[in-house]
Each structure stands twice: as structure tokens, then as C-alpha cells.
Amino acid sequence: MDIVPRTLSNTFNKFFESEKSSGNLLIICIVLALVITNSPIGPDYLSFWQRNVGGLSLEHWINDALMAIFFLLIGLELERELYIGELSNFKNALLPIVAAIGGMVAPALIHFSLNGGTPTQNGIGIPMATDIAFALGVLAILGNRIPASLKVFVVAFAVIDDLGAIVIIAAFYTAQLSVWYLVGALAVWTLLLALNRLFRVMSLFPYLVGGTLMWFLMLNSGIHATVAGVMLAFAIPFSAKDDDQKSPSHKLEHFLHKPVAFIILPLFALANTGIAMEADWTQDLTNANSVGIAAGLIAGKPLGVTFLCFVAIASGICRLPSDFKWSHMIGAGILGGIGVTMSIFITNLAFSGNPETINASKMAILLASLVAGVFGFLWLRLLGKSGADTKA
After folding, report:
1. pLDDT digits (tens, 9 = 90+) for 84-95
2. Cα 392 from Cα 388, distance rounded (Å)
């Protein structure tokens, strides 16, 4: 018996609309940053983001502080998925989990095969990420041409993909570790968990205060401060019964959607996609790192997603939803190759202090993501009709 896809909830539909709008705005910001950077005022534009404010540059405040709020939202979305969403049922969750694993491993292997043992080996995590906003933006354009289960599947595997990226950031892109700061951050997190699980404190205030302290301690620990955002998300109380009204986790997630979509991510794009394109910029796209990033996103994502899901389904571990075809699976894998936000974020960590490699990597990410988005749209437009009447 095939798995019947869920009916899309109001929460999911609001999330979908928010991510779609965010994707559209991000495109405008990326184009704007590229145009300004390569105009006569380009040097002034780039230096603006390096201005020191309170001991950190504006770019660092965006990447280390504002993006922690973005990661908090990702954590809240993941928490919701685990409690009441697609990941709450193991049978439903297993297929997107398998897809996410395949979509991370294959791109990483492609990049490593080209860069292993070289100075750019650190970029292995760059093609592993998926940008939910852009992927859902493409699905939104397709509208009713695709089944609802495809939207749910892409969200589920992209959220898991983001979780994988967070683990990679914490494990492999850590500066010199300061144990006592890390212990302090973990102690604050333990206290917040106790407030939730033992004392059932439902006010958001102590969690936000504790989360700010935890961010500061994590910032000084050597582990990237944005990890504190995800940790905070899982300390905030969540109740499946009153998800639509009273749950602190739901309230915060609902409140953060618009600021993240329309302020934080656009600022991140403006500060991080200002790429100076020299006369020979195309040559940078032929080096091993750029090729590894592009090949990982364009080819590695769909190959990894489709192959591992095929193995899981052929072995009987998973089943396709009733209105889901293999063409949808391949299309989801292609859209998974839209990296942008998370890929650029990891690039900044992987090649810190090497602006030339960062610029080349970002250009490879943007071009590969453009190819993946256009190809994914065309693929699903031509082959993405519902498979409800077609045996998978």
C-alpha cells in the first residue's frame, strides 16, 4: 500500500508563502549587490560592510549575529516538523531523510575527489547545502502542475539538509576551541532545557535572555555562534495540541518568519554576494574548487538524492507517496542543487582570510544554483504532473 500524502496545513502554507517571497527578494538583492560591486562605487560598497561597529564589522554582525536568528528559525521549523510535521511519522520521515543523506554525501564526494589533499579541500561542505527559499520559489511558480506531496518532500529534505549543514559547521569549521566558553554555553543550554522540561516555564523572555548569553559564549568558544540559534530552538517549549495559538515555539516561529525573510536574509545577500568580477573571472570557474562546487550542486544533488532513494525503495525500506513519480524525485534532487544562502555561509567559514577563493566559490555557487533552478523548473514543468494515476 502506497503512502498517502498529508493535506497541507495552514502552518505549512504560511511557511511556504513566506519562503517563496523571500526567494524573490533574495534574487533582487543578489543582482543588486553584483551590479553595485562592479560599478564605480564598488570599492565604497564593499568597504561599507567592513566598517567596525562595537568590535565587529557590519559583515560579521550579519553573519555571526543576525544569521544566528536565521538558524534559530531553522531549528524551530525542524522542531515543528519533528513534532507534528512530515518528520513526526517515521514512515513519512524516512524517505526525505534518505534523500537528504544522499544529497549531502554525493556532492561532498564529488568535491573531495577533485580537491582532496589540496588547500581547497575545506570546501567539501559547500555543495552539500540546499536553499529552502529558492527551491520553494521555483515550486511556487509551478503551482498546481506538481503534487502537494512534492512540496512537503522538498521542505522536509531541505530542513534535514540544513541540519546536516549545521552539524558540519559545528564539527569541521571550528576555530581554536575555548573549552570554558563552550562549557558555559552548554551550561546555559542545560538550564534552559530545565526551565522547559522540568519547570514548564512558558514565557519566552527567559529563553531569549538565556539564548543571547549562550550566543555570546558560543561566539567566544571557537564554534560558530550561529549553532547557538539551533540549540535555543530545541530548548523553547513546543506543544503539538496548541500549535496554532499558544505554543511559545510556534509564536516565535511565526514572529520570526517575516524579519528573517525580508530583513536578515536580504542583508546577508547584500553583504555576501558583492563579487568583484575581474576581466579573467571566468578562469576562476575552471579551477578544481569551483568545478567541485558546481558539479556537486548540479550533478551530485540529483544523483545522490535519486540513487539513495531508489536503493531504499527497491529494498522495501521506503515507499513513494501515491501521487509521487520518479520524475518528481529527480526534479526535487535538481532543485536541491540550489545552494545560495547556506553554501555561501559555509564558503565564508571554509576559506576565511582568502578573499580570492571566497569570490570564486561564490560565483560558482550562484551560477550552479541558477542552472539548477532553471533546469529543475523546466524538468518539473515538462514531467512533473501528478502521478496519482500512474504507478510509480
Report:
1. 877 788 877 899
2. 9
